[in-house]
Design goal:
Distance between the termini: 77 Å
Number of helices: 26
Number of strands: 9
Helix content: 40-55%
Radius of gyration: 29 Å
Strand content: 5-15%
Shape: globular
Largest sheet: 6 strands, mixed
Structural class: alpha/beta
Length: 543
């Protein structure tokens, strides 16, 4: 507005708004990133809402014409009619600005500018700190809700127009498989998205699709419905030849769902921040927050996160504790407390029996829950029932193809069973397609890099995996170190292998045979350990 009043409309462009206001980098491309167009549309809605409510009697009205970023200013007659538009001619515009800048109606103009300026400032702050509204909240944060609106097709009517219609339905269907998200369909792309303090959804997902040479850009924008602020946006480039095929909608929806459905994705940011700031929920636990803690445990595997999740579950009402999700989480935590050979005694067998019984109850109560099938498959895998585990992972992924944890876990099981080719696409989807993938996702990427002779990639993936898996991770790191000629790396991880209680109890290979069915991989491991100087007795027996 200041630039308009100063007669500097030429500097008000999408690029300058993105860089100066929205904090985008200097290489911002307005054609590739639609954020300015989206924010302009949101701002038009905010302005219209303001003048329908508290600003209905203002003597000066500000509007933002469609297709432009330069605001227009209008004087209003006392009865509400427009007295003069300041943008009718260049001379009238200058006169209007002079009047606005120093005329008697300046107080009314100041009120309008201040009101809209505060709204704009709040929007900008929200963009850079989207969780500010919930940062200090200790209320019972509910699972997030999102309304999905059809994407705008900017290539509609052109030859070779990409597939767009129905993408919102695909997204609703895919996101609905995540039981910790409340998702609904919002209609066509022309539906107005208004700020909704008491709206029906926390977030609104919209998007723009446009042709860009030989590719089509599918851009998704997630907006907070209370503030109008964009909290996340992402663009996928799809070859034009693929974008005109009907199957592209399923592929794009799945890529978006891998991010949006992830517990580390933008929809769950408020819960992550609340849990990070409030280690003890102090009576504010609910099933959704317990599930977010469980996902944190899944990502880290730490005993501390397991304890936090158990504490959260114990504080729930009986109905929530006995719900299918509650049963599945509690059973998984019970079964995974200690799976080392030295702990496989009568008490261990009893824990596994109880865990299996509760997971069976959960499956019976919720037979189409991908989350519960995934937990059941993990139990089967821990019990050495690999065929049944493969079947149950398959059920989990069939129910929810964008479940990153199920994809990574199933891929690992397949790869360690000798089916690395079948595991590859699932492992890459999990590691490359989900936000902030946890360290345990990198088992299969490490094996793939070793197979391809990519020593640098094998080292990077193996060292990440070693942070999550104290048994197999260091051994993969030794393989990668040997192939790259890094003796220091081999020695560092060899010390970890020889100091591990589970290996010392039964031997390295006997323990690994309980997890790895790929005989070729086991032979590689034996050769690598032998080359590193480990005695055959320690490789094959207790030491």
């Amino acid at each position: 507005m200041q630039r308009t009043l100063a007669g500097d409309e030429q500097s008000i462009k999408a690029y300058s708004i993105a860089v100066d206001v929205l904090g985008r980098a200097a290489d911002f491309d307005p054609q590739a990133d639609p954020i300015v167009r989206v924010q302009a549309r949101r701002l038009r809605g905010l302005i219209e809402e303001y003048y329908r409510g508290p600003g209905s009697g203002d003597a000066v009205r500000i509007s933002l014409p469609v297709g432009r970023y330069v605001p227009d200013f209008h004087w209003m007659e006392p009865a509400g009619g427009i007295r003069a538009a300041v943008d009718e001619t260049p001379s009238a515009a200058m006169t209007g600005r002079a009047q606005l800048a120093g005329g008697l109606a300046m107080s009314w103009f100041a009120v309008a500018v201040i009101t809209l300026g505060v709204a704009a400032l709040g929007l900008a702050l929200f963009i850079f700190n989207p969780m500010s509204e919930t940062a200090g909240s200790m209320g019972q944060l509910a699972r997030p809700s999102v309304t999905v609106v059809e994407f705008q097709n900017l290539a509609e009517g052109q030859s070779d127009a990409p597939q767009v219609a129905g993408l919102a339905i695909e997204l609703v269907t895919d996101l609905d498989q995540f039981e910790d998200i409340d998702v609904r369909y919002g209609g066509g792309a022309d539906v107005a998205i208004a700020v909704a303090p008491n709206g029906v959804a926390d977030y609104v997902l919209t998007g723009i699709v446009r042709k860009d040479g030989a590719v089509v850009q599918y851009s998704a924008i997630l907006t907070d419905s209370r503030s109008g602020g964009v909290v996340w946006n992402q663009t996928f480039a799809v070859p034009l030849a693929e974008a005109v095929q009907s199957g592209v909608l399923d592929a794009v929806s799945r890529r978006l769902s891998l991010v949006l459905g992830s517990p580390r994705g933008p929809l769950h940011g408020a819960a992550r921040q609340l849990l990070a700031q409030s280690p003890a929920l102090s009576g504010n636990a609910n099933l959704y927050l317990c599930r977010m803690l469980f996902h944190s445990y899944r990502a880290s595997g730490s005993a501390a996160e397991a304890d936090r999740t158990n504490t959260c579950l114990s504080g729930l009402a009986a109905d929530d504790r006995e719900s299918p999700t509650g049963l599945a989480m509690a059973a998984s935590l019970l079964a995974e407390r200690d799976i080392a050979p030295s702990g496989r005694d009568t008490a261990y067998a009893e824990r596994m029996r109880l865990a299996e019984a509760d997971l069976d109850r959960a499956i019976s109560a919720a037979p189409v829950s991908a989350f519960i099938w995934e937990q059941h498959a993990r139990l089967r895998q821990d019990m050495g029932q690999f065929d049944r585990a493969r079947t149950e992972y398959g059920s989990a992924i069939q129910l929810n193809p964008a479940n990153g944890d199920a994809l990574a876990a199933y891929a690992r099981l397949l790869a360690l069973g000798g089916n690395i080719a079948e595991a590859e696409s699932m492992a890459r989807d999990a590691a490359d397609g989900t936000p902030n993938p946890p360290d345990w996702y990198f088992c299969v990427p490490a094996l793939l890099a070793l197979q391809a002779g990519d020593n640098a990639g094998a080292i990077a993936a193996a060292e990440r995996y070693a942070l999550a898996d104290a048994e197999l991770g260091p051994i993969l790191a030794i393989l990668a170190g040997q192939r790259s000629g890094d003796g220091d790396m081999v020695n560092r991880y060899l010390a970890q292998v020889l100091d591990l209680p589970s290996f010392r109890a039964v031997g390295v290979l006997p323990r690994l045979r309980e997890r790895v069915q790929d005989k070729a991989l086991l032979e590689q491991i034996q050769a690598a350990l032998t080359a590193a100087g480990v005695p055959l007795k320690a490789i094959n027996g207790a030491f």
